[in-house]
Write a structure and sequence with these properties.
There is one protein chain. The protein is α+β, with helices and mostly antiparallel strands and about 550 residues long. The protein is built from 11 helices and 28 strands. Strands 1, 2, 3, 4, 5, 6, 7, 8, 9 and 10 form a 10-stranded antiparallel sheet that branches. Helix 1 packs across helix 4. The longest helix is centred in the first third of the chain and has 34 residues. The radius of gyration is 26 Å and the shape is globular.
């Protein structure tokens, strides 16, 4: 089987052989842990695989492949056309049920039960790709990862669990074979492009902050976004200080090392400056702030040797550095360096330091100052987090199922924070005029206030009044969204940038609006409110701000 990683310093260079979950044994906080035997999980998975394989195939077809095709370069005209899952179920390691206390207030008040499950999947999956008009097969796909399952939030009444969130704390290790036209399939740019696209496609669907959320349902009083898009608990900066005793990767002279740092999928990769001709380089550079969604995420820091004419040579990096461990460190720390295959680089050390800030919901006074541009931050301050909740869409009568809600905040240097909701589904509601009248009559008999009647039925107060008069009321369609996404932004960006909301269908924008971001920030986590688009459709949303705690 061919290798999935080249020597160039790219996201591939972070793929160090993982010892699943062993690092969690080093945690110093109070911890309760239950271990479920791997054979039990494997037997359970094997029995459920006929059902789970259909679910997995649906995720790949509907979520992963569209994201993959967006990432593939146009120069080779590459696209993935079809996907079959195969009959092999994954192999699992021991599942750990972990509840940790005493690290941050967010963890202390955690209302979720978390399980971590390492797995390896040597699949019989087959992906059909087209490269420059030629068919190329992607087969024998191997995926190695850790699955994190959030059970909750836990309720004190039925249905007990608000839902289940399934995600990966870190990108998986991926390998595959290419078949087809040899001259095309073996071109390094083609292989690299397909690998990077599959990697980012899976990460875009499954790696934190992305997750598959299965809420219990609004009819049971569950707000879906607490399952599908919980906010980050904190922000982490990494100071890249120095390294020593690095191996020499150059045939002439000495290595020209640099460091790349990454936390999570959406966090940008930080790249340090290159130190020429040194086996003991000093950088003293601080990364940007990374959003942290769980303390079981890892910090990836990798040292490479820069080459002018050829891809960078991989030297080595951190191994299993969980954020939970980092919070107990004080001051600069030396870390052993490991190659991508997990073997230790003899005598080599990498010195790093860390800065952590827990996040809290911003006070109303902070929100007001942000709106008025009177709240300032210094050049070394941590940024804030903006949470964009899209609750539902109330549309014009012609609005049909299958559209998506898009959100965009344009930043500097042609960058933008963007996300799309899942396909909108029409809310099951009372559409018959007679049923509406019967329901409203019963609510009147119970002396339910009109405001509560509107909330129960989904009608406006004006529509309820029209029903009472005996008029025929046209009920507009309502679509459930229930998604929440988060952006790390400086105060200057919050105060100067705009928020663009849009409805898209089949890749075409059917309605949109652009508003000043700061003016939309709510002072609390109250109910979502409507935003009217240019075409008179309404997106019910809520924008909140989270502040780093010093």
């Amino acid at each position: 089987m061919g290798t999935c990683c080249s020597n160039q310093a790219s996201p591939d260079a972070f793929e160090i052989e993982s010892v699943p979950v062993e690092g969690l044994r080093r945690l110093t906080a109070n911890e309760s842990e239950v271990i479920v035997d791997a054979s039990t999980i494997a037997e359970f998975a094997a029995r459920l695989w006929p059902v789970l394989s259909k679910l997995t195939e649906g995720i790949f077809v509907n979520e992963v492949i569209p994201k993959v095709n967006k990432k593939l370069p146009g120069m080779f005209n590459i696209s993935l056309r079809s996907f079959s899952i195969g009959a092999n179920p994954p192999m699992f390691g021991q599942m750990r049920i972990i509840e940790t206390e005493g690290v941050t207030s967010a963890e202390q008040t955690s209302d979720r039960l978390r399980t971590i499950l390492p797995f390896i999947w040597d699949s019989q999956a087959q992906v059909d790709a087209v490269v420059a008009g030629f068919h190329v097969g992607v087969q024998k796909i191997q995926i190695k990862a850790e699955i994190l399952v959030d059970w909750g939030p836990i309720l004190d009444q039925y249905p007990i669990l608000s839902g289940v969130g399934i995600t990966m704390p870190d990108p998986p290790t991926i390998d595959f074979d290419l078949t087809g036209v040899a001259s095309i399939a073996e071109l390094p740019p083609v292989r690299s492009a397909i690998f990077n696209a599959i990697d980012s496609g899976i990460a875009g669907a499954m790696v934190l902050p992305n997750r598959i959320g299965i809420p219990a349902g609004r009819e049971r009083g569950v707000k879906p976004w607490v399952v599908t898009g919980p906010p980050p608990i904190g922000l982490l900066k990494v100071k890249v200080i120095s390294a020593k005793n690095l191996p020499n990767e150059d045939l002439t002279g000495q290595s020209d090392p640099f460091v790349e740092v990454r936390v999570g999928y959406l966090g940008k990769v930080f790249k340090s400056k290159v130190v020429d001709s040194s086996l003991n380089p000093v950088w003293n550079e601080m990364t940007h702030a990374y959003p942290v969604y769980t303390l079981f995420q890892k910090v990836h820091a990798f040292v490479s040797d820069s080459d002018f004419w050829t891809p960078a040579d991989a030297i080595g990096g951190l191994k299993d550095m969980y954020i939970h461990d980092i919070l107990h460190l004080r001051g600069p720390q030396e870390f052993d360096i490991y190659k991508k295959d997990g073997t230790k680089v003899e005598n080599a050390k990498l010195t790093l330091a860390f800065e952590w800030r827990e996040l809290k919901l911003s006070e109303p006074s902070e929100v007001k100052m942000a709106r008025e541009s009177s709240l300032k931050e210094g050049p070394t301050e941590f940024p804030h987090v903006i949470s964009v909740l899209i609750d539902k869409v109330i549309g014009k009568p012609e609005l049909q199922e299958g559209f998506k809600v898009g959100c965009e905040i344009s930043l500097n240097d042609d960058e933008a924070f963007q996300f799309e909701s899942s396909y909108a589904k029409k809310e099951e509601s009372y559409t018959d005029q007679f049923i509406y009248k019967r329901v409203l009559q019963k609510l009147d008999e119970k002396k339910i206030p009109i405001a509560q009647q509107a909330e129960i039925t989904g009608l406006t107060k004006e529509q309820i009044e029209e029903f009472r008069k005996g008029s025929k009321v046209h009920v507009v369609p309502e679509f459930d969204i229930g998604s929440q996404n988060h952006a790390v932004l400086s105060l200057a960006e919050i105060q100067s940038k705009s928020l663009k909301l849009s409805l898209t269908q089949g890749g075409n924008v059917i309605d949109t609006v652009e508003l000043p971001l700061a003016k939309q920030i709510a002072e609390d986590e109250g109910q979502p409110t409507p935003v009217s688009l240019k075409g008179d459709n309404q997106i019910w949303c809520r924008i909140t701000m989270r502040t780093p705690v010093k």
